[in-house]
Amino acid sequence: MTNNKPFPAGAPVGLIGLGLMGQGIASCLLSRGFHVVAYNRTASRAQASLKHIAHALSELARRKVVPRSAIADWKKRYQLTDSIDGLRDCFFVIETVKEDLALKGEIYDQLESAVKARAVIASNTSSIPITLLQKGRQHPERFIGMHWGEPAEIMQYLEIIPGQETSRRATDLAKRVGAVCGKMPTVLNFDIRGFISNRLMYAMLREAFHLVEAGVADVETIDRSYRNDMGWWATIAGPFRWMDLTGIPAYMAVMEGLLPELDNSTKVPNLMRGMVKSGALGIANQKGFYRYTKAEAAQWEKVWVDFTYDIRGLAEKYQKKVKF
């Protein structure tokens, strides 16, 4: 592994779960020189990860995110295992299974029996409090949240969330792994459900649903407005930087009149319940808030990846001029 001074020599990173996010995390780790031992309950998905990773790494090299020499030996550094026991030598393990507390608990029971006491265990949960995940564990101090963005191998995004019992060592190790992976780790001061980005995003999503259900505008119109405003500046400026750039007092004036009228419902919107009940998955089955042909869905997937690479390049360009 390259750049391995902060890590145990020769020790691999473990990965549990090889869905879309897990495959992206594996690609990211491999592109940065890590050895990876990966486990998935479904053997067919584990095997399918080889094709996905090969393509992802080839794209990273083609687009000059990493040198081609960095990925030449990736197959030697990627090991599939049919048992969690195969992760016994890992110094750091990332769990990225679905948001099911019982399932995660079962995995942690097996994992804690397999890995060394000092091995750090990171969960890629999107919203479950880390304090809840580490409750009742043999070594709760080693559990930490590590929330990746999608596509994981391209984005600079990474949130690191310590639970109430997480050690400083676990936090520092997660930060170093993230930094070697080319991320800009955001470390929370304490555990909170949904962390930072998801709390901001879901507040926006709730208001978006409210505007549709109230008849203010349709889905396409709301998407267009959001895309051409927040979507225009959010790569270079967060909400506080944006207020600095555009004048703070105006925002206070708007808040006084607008905040009382924003939606504060604690229930899932009826539109969302209806979509899920109808079996809508989005582009995965060409049925979502928009309808897609198979060709359109495939084109959107391609465009999303291309756009993400372009945004990464744009961010890197301006990071050289100002500190983000």
Note down, in words, how this protein is organized.
It is built from twelve helices and eight strands. The protein has 324 residues and is of the alpha/beta class. The protein folds into two domains: 13-187, Rossmann fold, CATH 3.40.50; 198-319, N-(1-d-carboxylethyl)-l-norvaline Dehydrogenase, domain 2 (Orthogonal Bundle), CATH 1.10.1040.10. Strand 5 (120-123), helix 4 (130-134) and strand 6 (143-148) form a beta-alpha-beta unit. It is globular, with a radius of gyration of 21 Å. The two termini are 29 Å apart. 26% of the residues are buried. The model has no long low-confidence stretch (mean pLDDT 95).
Helix count from the secondary structure assignment: 12
Sheet with the most strands?
A: 8 strands, mixed
Please provide the count of β strands: 8
Strand pairing plus helix content: what structural class? Answer: alpha/beta
Order of helices and strands: EHEHEEHEHEEHEHHHHHHH
Strand order of the largest sheet: 3-2-1-4-5-6-7-8
Residue share in helix? 40-55%
CATH architectural arrangement of the largest domain? 3-Layer(aba) Sandwich
Over the alpha carbons, how many angstroms does the gyration radius reach? 21 Å
Q: Assign the CATH class of the largest domain.
A: Alpha Beta
What count of structural domains? 2
